[in-house]
Amino acid sequence: MEPEEILKRHGQEHLARYEGLSAAEREEYRRRLAKIDWETVELWKHPEDLSGGGAIRPIEGVDLYTIAARREAWEKEGVKAIRAGKVAAVLLAGGQGTRLGWDGPKGSYNIGITRPVYIFERLVANLTEVCNACMATVPLYIMTSEKNDAETRAFFRAHDYFGYPAGYVKFFSQEMAPCVDFQGKILLEGKGKLALSPNGNGGWYSSLVKAGYAAELKKRGVEWLNVFGVDNVLQRIADPVFLGATIASGKNSGAKFVRKSSPEEKVGVLCLKDGLPSVIEYYEMGEAEKNLRNERGELVYSFGMTLNYLFRLDRLAEIADKKIPVHVVRKKVSYLGEDGTLVVPERENAYKFETLILDMVRLAGSCLPFEVVREREFAPIKNKTGADSVETARELLKQNGVEL
Ligand code: UTP
Would residue 369 count as lying in a domain? Predict the structure, then answer.
């Protein structure tokens, strides 16, 4: 069927406009139109269905005291797995980082003060430290999106992979999804250009498969993937203790957590929902649960997620077969107005479609929450100033002896 006919069927005829496009641009645009995933786009009708209820309970995890007592044995186990080539790292760097307001890949942001120190550089340095201690190299897979792929690759090349062996660094790009207005109409960002956004950080495994890397990992004998976000410049990657604890637990996944600093902290919390490990976003949790304390006065739901997970590779294929839910989220999206000029909205005007890695923890079926010391391992950069910002991260880096 011709794209125009499909558009009509879905009430999106406004997209079938080609004036001002060259023949090649027109062809490219039509190819894009033919690729639209209508099942996803139709979800705009049910944005509220996904916050989902369900009874929640605390989940058992390993706290700092347990970790201190078992550190040596777990570390040994983790180092063994790394040396045997059973561990790879996956950096999720496909996000747009709009809150930071930096016009390049977030990892290329310079957080240095007296010298350049890039976010990517910090992450690679953290991983290098572990590799050196283990005398092994952990393969690093970096997920980008169409919007930042070329720039990310070029940035790594220009900086000589920050000293990491280039043959161990691979890039793959995640899929994009169209943005729609609140009436479900797909937006354009220019003539013959759909307003597309990366399809969320839950798309990483299917994109890894599409790039052929999941098969490569399996062939290499990799059993565990440490998947982590770009924001946290203090995190330990391929942490042998975390690996050892997760392997020893027999669980299919592991998640590093920090204790929530207050009931109001805007962080997703790991708990059990209907008996399965689930990350509940701060805006989904009721006031009573948010403020619930145990007999020692500690918050009951306090396992704040740091976006540093371990997944057993052989479970991931199964997870991917189950449907990862698509979240329909309200965002500000610039679009081509009626008069042909770009409109930059001041408030949310559109839905984006995203799958989230946190839903994979639930699909994994079991998860070991693993506590880390906030001041030593959690310095997320979301904003330029204020909470979780360049400012707070700089302070924490300095406290941890990193020269900026
Ligand atoms: P965030 O939730 O901070 O989203 O991503 P974001 O798009 O990067 O930033 P804002 O909200 O626009 O400011 C958490 C992690 O997930 C990755 C990000 O790169 C970051 O490491 N991510 C997010 C992806 O890889 N792909 C996506 O589609 C979204």
Answer: yes
Find tokens 């007999």 and name the residue. Answer: 295
In this prediction the pTM is: 0.94
- Mean pLDDT confidence for 265-270: 93
What single-letter DSSP state applies at residue 50?
G
Domain extent for 124 = 36-399
| CATH number reported for the structural domain that contains residue 43 in this entry | 3.90.550.10
Residues near ligand 1 (Cβ within 6 A) = 92-99, 143, 174, 198-201, 229-231, 307, 382
Asked whether residue 404 is assigned to any structural domain, the reply reads no
- C-alpha 180: how far from its chain's center? 22
Q: How confident is the model at residue 216 (pLDDT cuts 50, 70, 90)?
A: very high
Ligand 1 center from residue 99 Cα (angstroms): 10
Residue 98 and residue 164 in one domain: yes
Enter the tokens of residue 166: 């280039």
Between CA 29 and CA 20 the distance in angstroms is 12
Distance 92 CA to ligand 1 centre (A): 8
Q: Are residues 17 and 51 in the same domain?
A: no
